[in-house]
TrEMBL record:
Gene Ontology terms, MF aspect: oxidoreductase activity, acting on the CH-OH group of donors, NAD or NADP as acceptor; quinone binding
Source organism (scientific name): Paracoccus seriniphilus
Protein name: Meso-butanediol dehydrogenase / (S,S)-butanediol dehydrogenase / diacetyl reductase
PROSITE patterns reported in the protein's UniProt record: ADH_SHORT
Residue intervals of the Ketoreductase domain: 6-184
Length: 264
């Protein structure tokens, strides 16, 4: 088990991708704190999976410091931090309110900042044992290129990419590695919400037709699963990735590698 003896904290740990990461870490032998707004997160039900639930709003600094104090008390260190909490607003800037814009940055960017900031003392304690600690942020392929109708989301993910590189430079000398995962289309509740929203450009098509259209635009003719993301996160969290830092790891089935073809 690659993560035996390690302590991990996953924000958004009750969501689609977050839950898959938590499950993978548990299988690899880690002690896992699943941080989210509620025990159910974005899913309707929750079974006891062996993780430790931490109630936490990543945009609320007292909530973050309280969660880290609990980890300090119970574990004394934090080897792995995954900043997977995020929200998506499907609007152009013209249609986005200032409140929506600020909320997007509060969760996607400020949340990453606050959780990482207050995790650093615990991660230094982990690195002092002679192995590297690992922070894994969540960017997006939308931080490189843009989907229509996702202006605020794209902006926040570009910011996370830049923050990841800065953190890697600042904290690498302390034995703390920092990387970002940049998913494409992943089968999560957020994606299914996108299919029903204005941002999909559905034009009256059925959900099944939209889903197939998204699959067809990928070179691999499918979109990903939360487990696909968890596999890469697990490697970045492990000591096998001891020399990997400051990178933006795109996992999108080849979508961003191609020029979009003309619709004939």
């Amino acid at each position: 088990m690659k993560l035996e003896g390690k302590t991990a904290l996953v924000t958004g740990g009750r969501g689609g991708i977050g839950r898959a990461i938590v499950a993978r870490f548990l299988r690899e032998g880690a002690t896992v704190y699943a941080a989210d707004l509620t025990p159910q997160g974005s899913l309707a039900e929750h079974d006891d999976d062996g993780s430790i639930f931490l109630p936490m709003n990543v945009a609320d600094e007292p909530a973050v410091t309280s969660a880290m104090a609990r980890v300090q008390q119970e574990s004394g260190k934090l080897d792995i931090l995954v900043n997977a909490a995020g929200i998506e607003i499907e609007k152009t800037i013209e249609d986005t309110t200032l409140e929506e814009w600020n909320r997007s940055f509060a969760v996607n960017c400020t949340g990453t900042f606050l959780t990482s900031k207050h995790a650093l003392p615990l991660m230094r304690a982990a690195a002092a044992t002679g192995q590297t600690a690992s922070i894994i942020n969540f960017g997006s392929y939308d931080g490189f290129i843009a989907d229509p109708g996702l202006a605020a989301y794209c902006a926040t993910k570009g910011a996370v990419h830049a923050l990841t590189r800065a953190m890697a430079c600042d904290h690498g000398p302390e034995g703390i590695r920092v990387n970002a995962i940049c998913p494409g289309y992943i089968d999560t509740p957020m994606l299914q919400s996108f299919f029903t929203g204005d941002g999909s450009g559905g034009g009256g098509k059925s959900i099944d037709q939209l889903q197939q259209a998204v699959r067809d635009v990928h070179p691999m003719r499918t979109y990903g699963t939360p487990d696909d993301i968890a596999n890469l996160v697990n490697w970045l969290a492990s000591d096998e990735a001891r020399y990997a830092s400051g990178q933006l790891w795109v996992l999108d089935g080849g979508l961003s590698a191609q020029v979009q073809q003309m619709k004939l």
